[in-house]
Specification:
The N and C termini lie far apart (45 Å). The chain is an alpha/beta fold. The longest helix is centred in the last third of the chain and has 13 residues, at 165-177. Helices cover 38% and strands 17% of the residues. It has an eight-stranded parallel beta barrel with strand order 1-2-3-4-5-6-7-8, surrounded by six helices. It has ten helices and eight strands. The chain has a single domain, classed as TIM Barrel. Bound molecules: SN-glycerol-1-phosphate.
């Protein structure tokens, strides 16, 4: 018990949500590299960690569909060779692993499928009650990235066209009013077109919670454009895999 207390304090000290808030306030944006557990070789985790871009602040783990147990193997492998925070970005509740540092507890607000608005979240509860995984309430908004994304396929929902900026802003503000701690603007993994800077800018002008942006970001210019428009964190998966 005596040892547990400092561990709990340490976990609280490195709250991921707090780091998002601090990054937003100090305008020091964050970079998360997304790992798809089905494509990751856990035996090469240390090589992977050494190859990360220097600017990497967080590791995200998850995918729209993942083999049972794969997430847990990846989290364990990463935790054994890096101190970078490991954040779950799950496609469904089966990907929740208490050994990670935090969980984006997402609700897909852009689509009308109750399973991804509240169904998966209820199923997740039994995996969350007895551990200290940091749970970050996240409004997840799927925006058209120029292709049919895995999120769209799995959830059976349509992405919002990029030109519907007012609608995207309304969803983001609704997320804030509902008590979400951050908003994730998602163009979908492998998007042809990332979330437009104007969307990020408009959303950032309406809400006060941090904005995470991901999907199709491949170049330094796109990364900088997202940061300059108001993204607190950018998530890159495919470009780093490639
Ligand atoms: C997907 O936003 C993430 O959920 C990352 O997308 O793989 O296109 O970088 P990419």
């Amino acid at each position: 018990m005596a040892l547990l207390v400092p561990l709990l304090i340490l976990r609280q000290m490195i709250s991921i949500l707090q780091s998002l808030k601090t990054a937003k306030e100090s305008k020091s944006p964050l970079l998360a590299i997304l790992i798809d557990p089905d494509k990751f070789d856990s035996f090469s985790a240390s090589v992977f960690v050494r190859s990360l871009p220097r600017a990497t602040t967080h590791l995200f783990v998850g995918g729209s569909t993942v083999e049972p147990g794969a997430t847990q193997l990846v989290v364990a492998a990463l935790k054994s060779c890096t101190a970078k925070p490991v954040v779950l970005f799950p496609g469904d509740y089966s990907q929740i692993d208490p050994e990670a540092d935090a969980l984006l507890f997402m609700s897909l607000l852009s689509g009308g499928n109750p399973e991804y608005l509240i169904g998966q979240q209820i199923k997740a509860v039994s995996r969350l009650s007895d551990n200290h995984l940091e749970v970050i309430p996240t409004g997840y908004i799927l925006i058209d990235g120029g292709h049919i994304s895995a999120v769209s396929r799995v959830t059976g929902t349509n992405a919002i066209p990029q030109e519907n900026i007012d609608h995207i802003c309304d969803i983001a503000l609704a997320a804030q009013f509902m008590g979400k701690s951050c908003v994730y603007l998602e163009a979908g993994s492998g998007a042809v077109i990332p979330v437009n800077s104007e969307i990020i800018k408009q959303v950032a002008s309406k809400i006060t919670i941090p904005i995470i942006v991901g999907g199709g970001i491949k170049s330094e210019a796109q990364l900088e454009a997202a940061y300059n428009a108001g993204a607190t964190m950018v998530v890159i998966g495919t470009a780093f895999e490639d």
